[in-house]
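Repro:
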Amino acid sequence: MKCQSLCLIAACLFLGCSRQENIRPLPTETQNVDRIDHAKKSSTQGDLNVSVHRAPVAADGITAHAVTDIVLNFRALDPLIDGISIKKDGTVQVVLDEAFENTGGSGNIAIILQGWPQSPPAPPPFIWTTTVIDHTITVELNQDFPIGMFGPGPKQVHLALFGFKNPGPGIYPIHLSIKPDPNAAGTKEGIGYVQIIPKSRPAISAVSIFSGGGPPPPFNNAIYQTVTLGGCANTVGLYLWDKMKKPFVGVDILMVNPNHGRLIRSDGSTAGQVWISSPSGAAEFSLTTESPATLGSAFLTGVEVGILKTKFTPDPAILGNYQLSLKMNNGNTQDLFVHVVSL
């Protein structure tokens, strides 16, 4: 089955890349962590270090028998670290384990990202063509996608496979290969492992569509931000689902002290925890929300979701790195990073 990129205009608002300058993140590859050791296993052979994660636009992308919606990371997410340049007619190929069910349905989408949500090189029509045969998804570039032209370059591939269903609970290998130059010898390869969980659980995901820079794409990087002394970070939108895959509406953040807070339900009960690691000497920083989470639709998938818009303001007198970790009880953790630099 062949899915031409031109047909994917509806994904435009979901996808984007950042035009932020001088981004300086913390030295980490954490993004949307499900805190399952096996799911973070990466390749033990080849030269791609592959990890597999639930996509941020679906509550159940790694849940047993749900639609497959995953992101494969193959380069460090730090935007100062280069991705992999891919020339015209170069390919990115993913082979799923045969336990995944190809239902024969349409709507399989592959999106090359640069290290954060909504960061392809341009809005649809994409600069690649996606072909699905059996359990193999092949992305062929229609023009060059080099490092530096649109951002740090290819680092991830998001597979929104509406024509596939996940297998039962377990750990499954996913093979990734990249041929950056069709006219040169050599293919980069690696194997990542995804843990398919037996049932859905509370989920939190940062998306970039509320952080400026679009629409249309590119959108600013919501995961890694650099701000000047005295400034504040861009708004970060958080998608929230409860353990039943229902939109987690009414959730808010209540900070207990500058470094610790709670995600609270509308009745005041605790839905999760918030931890902020700050530079030495920092005290006058804050994490605030526009309002409790409201009902919305997730981009690309269109599923209902709770949307919580947050704003982080660093200490106006202290340089350095902040890490914000938002963890759902019995769910995943979303990490965010802010680096404060001098004017």
